[in-house]
Design brief:
There is one protein chain. The chain is α+β, with helices and mostly antiparallel strands and about 600 residues long. The protein folds into four domains: about 20-105 and about 125-190, tricorn interacting facor f3 domain (Immunoglobulin-like, Sandwich), CATH 2.60.40.1730; about 205-435, Orthogonal Bundle (Neutral Protease, domain 2); about 450-485, no CATH class; about 490-590, Alpha Horseshoe (Serine Threonine Protein Phosphatase 5, Tetratricopeptide repeat). It is about 40% helix and about 25% strand. The chain has helices spanning about 220-225, 230-240, 280-290, 305-325, 325-345, 365-370, 370-390, 390-405, 410-420, 425-430, 430-435, 450-460, 470-475, 480-485, 495-505, 510-525, 530-540, 545-555, 560-570, 575-590, and strands at about 20-25, 30-55, 55-65, 65-70, 70-75, 80-100, 110, 125, 145-155, 160-165, 165-175, 175-190, 195-200, 200-205, 210-215, 250, 260, 265-270, 295-300, 405-410. Strands 1, 2, 3, 4, 5, 6, 9, 11 and 12 form a nine-stranded mixed sheet that branches. A five-stranded mixed sheet has the order 14-15-16-18-17, covered by helices on one side. A hairpin with a 3-residue loop joins strand 11 and strand 12. Helix 2 (about 230-240) packs across helix 4 (about 305-325), helix 3 (about 280-290) packs across helix 4 and helix 16 packs parallel to helix 18 (about 545-555). It is globular and about 80 Å long. It starts with 18 loop residues before the first strand and ends with a helix. The structure holds ligand BES and zinc ion. Zinc ion binds near residues 286 and 312.
Length: about 600
């Protein structure tokens, strides 16, 4: 017996699920889903089958046509949840499990109407990555197993369901309800199962792309993401034909804990991207790129997460270069450098979490999450590209996609393939240091541009009293302003903050990257005029990328610590479970 994924009860000697048929009844009153999951094996199988579950109440397990079969739930384990062991009789083709989800299911956030834009109807969304699919469906919750699926989702009349799948019709259902059907013919890992239910409207952006959002935001979403077809075309230039038919997007309510999630055929996005000037669409480029790097070629487990994210950041920045030029790309790398340095600092006492090839036995993947697989990973990919040249690397990427499409691979498989295709390249870039050693290698590629150097020099001279001129400020694009703010000293005075806000009009920014960078500086400076805006942002937005630094920066002064605790007490019931946990960790790290 062998359990190859430390985050799953999956046994590699057992049959793999090939297809999943789901019936989901969404009950907003009881905050639970009544589910029936039928696992198909595509073959006759028998014997033990171990599935992952967490917080699920199992009602019955049967082989259709043959009746109930024996099953048992193991003890609750802190990270993994409970193993559901089924004993399949001879000649089993499929098995049907009836179950209920728990109101605390980590994959699901149930929103009250007041937490939505329209304030009229409740909202439900899922977030299965990393290992939360098991709180939604009993399954082999490891990317080593890929399943196609079909689903029937019953929701209250007036609400719309969307999934990481193609729509396959909808119809009224008994009891004032409505049923939506879906089909995902391509095999996907369980972490890409996704569902959202709410008051939704959509706008077509191109023949193969539309955006969904609450009716109140759908017009601004359509404007913000109008360039998506252009991005798909550029991504196809890098990777080959788009493999998932449609590319639709869903803009969620603000408690969504991530910037974006690459659910196939239906990217989930935070509404904080709606800056009104298309300045944050690099997140769409990123999620779109995952259609290849992640969804088509998938990490075999969270120990190889960098294969998903490092490649995707690299691709995101290549798309940025093609669309907006290499100056913009250099700014992207500079922002990434800041995120990388912050993460290396956060994990300075846990160097084993700063290698790319992780060892996560006994470690919750959500606790290991950081910018390191993203930015260190992207730098390894960029180093390989520089080593062999763009043209050869381009061919390599195509071959990589062809060789591993619809499979899930390890770092070791990746390295073997690189060695075959680009002999000597791994050694030449010192890949071993990226993969197996902490920190960032000295030799990592650096991305520079004249403008980036100017911004850096200007910010570094802040302590000497050097300030940007009104002319300079007026000419800055959002990305330039952001990089400037990121390069400023972390500890400013209230007078510094007053200058910044007065000259850069920071308090009213619609670009959340800029707004949060500013509020983080203001919080660290104990700058009182920013407190109401800090409270507003922390009460509304659940994106962890913003909560972590902002709550972190509030830790520096007694007054700001009190503010943070007070805001958290009021806001945390509205946070996603993942966000709540992250903030709790930050608050616990405050000096007593
Ligand atoms: N797949 C990730 C989001 C994720 C990671 C969810 C780990 C759960 C566990 C997604 O593609 C992502 O990286 N989002 C970033 C976007 C950014 C890097 C452009 C985010 O949410 O900020
Ligand atoms: Zn990503």
């Amino acid at each position: 017996m062998h359990r190859p994924d430390p985050h799953s009860f999956y046994e590699s000697s057992q049959p793999k699920t090939r297809r999943l048929r789901l019936k989901l009844g969404v009950d907003f009153d009881r905050k639970r889903i009544e589910g029936e999951a039928t696992l198909e094996f595509g073959d006759s199988v028998q014997g033990d089958l171990d599935l992952d579950t967490k917080g699920l109440e199992i009602l019955s397990v049967k082989v259709p046509g043959a009746g109930p079969i024996p099953w048992s739930l193991g003890e609750e384990q802190p990270i993994l949840g409970r193993r559901l062991r089924l004993t399949l009789p001879a000649d089993t083709q499929e098995v049907a499990i009836s179950y209920l989800t728990s109101p605390e299911a980590m994959a699901l956030q149930w929103l009250e109407p007041a937490q939505t834009e329209g304030r009229q109807a409740p909202f439900l969304f899922s977030q299965c990555q990393q290992i939360h699919a098991r709180t939604l469906v009993p399954c082999q919750d490891t990317p080593m197993v890929r399943i196609s699926y079909q689903a029937e989702v019953t929701v209250p009349e007036g609400l719309t369901a969307v999934m990481s799948a193609g729509p396959a019709g909808d119809a009224p259902a008994p009891g004032g309800r409505h049923v939506f059907r879906f089909a995902m013919p391509q095999p996907i890992p369980s972490y890409l199962l996704a569902l959202a239910v709410g008051r939704l409207a959509s706008r077509d952006l191109s023949p193969r792309s539309r955006v969904w959002a609450e009716p109140e935001t759908v017009a601004s979403a359509a404007w913000e993401f109008a360039g998506v077809e252009d991005m798909i075309a550029k991504a196809e230039g890098l990777f080959g034909a788009y493999p998932w038919d449609r590319y639709d997007m869903l803009v969620l309510p603000p408690s969504f804990p991530y910037g974006g999630m690459e659910n196939p055929r239906m990217t989930f996005l935070t509404p904080t991207l709606l800056a009104g000037d298309r300045s944050l669409v690099d997140v769409v480029a990123h999620e779109l790129a995952h259609s290849w790097t992640g969804n088509l070629v998938t990490n075999a487990s969270m120990e190889h997460f960098w294969l998903n994210e490092g490649f995707t950041v690299w691709a995101e920045r290549r798309i940025l270069r093609i669309l907006h030029g290499s100056d913009e790309e250099a700014l992207g790398w500079a922002m990434g450098q800041k995120a990388l340095e912050d993460s290396l600092e956060r994990f300075k006492d846990e160097p084993h979490l700063t290698v790319l090839r992780l060892h996560l036995e006994g470690i919750d993947p959500d606790d290991a999450f950081s910018s390191i697989p993203y930015e260190k990973g992207a730098r390894l990919v960029a180093a390989l590209e520089r080593e062999v040249g763009e043209e050869r690397f381009h061919r390599f990427i195509r071959d990589y996609m062809d060789a591993f499409r619809f499979t899930s691979i390890t770092t070791e498989q990746f390295c073997t393939f690189v060695e075959e295709q680009l002999p000597g390249a791994l050694k030449a870039v010192g890949a071993d240091a990226y993969l197996h050693h902490p920190g960032l290698p000295e030799t990592a590629p650096v991305f520079r541009s004249a403008q980036l150097d100017r911004l850096t020099a200007l910010a570094e001279r802040w302590p000497e009293g050097v300030r940007p001129t009104g002319e300079q400020i007026a000419a800055w694009k959002p990305a330039e302003l952001l990089v400037y703010l990121q390069k400023l000293p972390r500890q400013l005075t209230p007078a510094d903050c007053a200058w910044l806000d007065g000259n850069l009009a920071l308090m009213g920014r619609g670009n959340y990257e800029i707004l949060v960078e500013w509020l983080t500086l203001a919080a660290a400076a104990d700058y009182e005029p920013a407190f109401p805006r800090i409270r507003e942002v922390l009460s509304k937005v659940g994106r962890m990328k913003y909560l972590r630094p902002l709550y972190g920066a509030l830790g520096g002064h007694a007054r700001t610590r009190a503010l943070a605790r007070e805001i958290f007490a009021a806001a945390s019931p509205g946070y996603h479970g993942l966000s709540r946990r992250v903030v709790q960790g930050v608050l616990e790290s405050y000096p007593a």
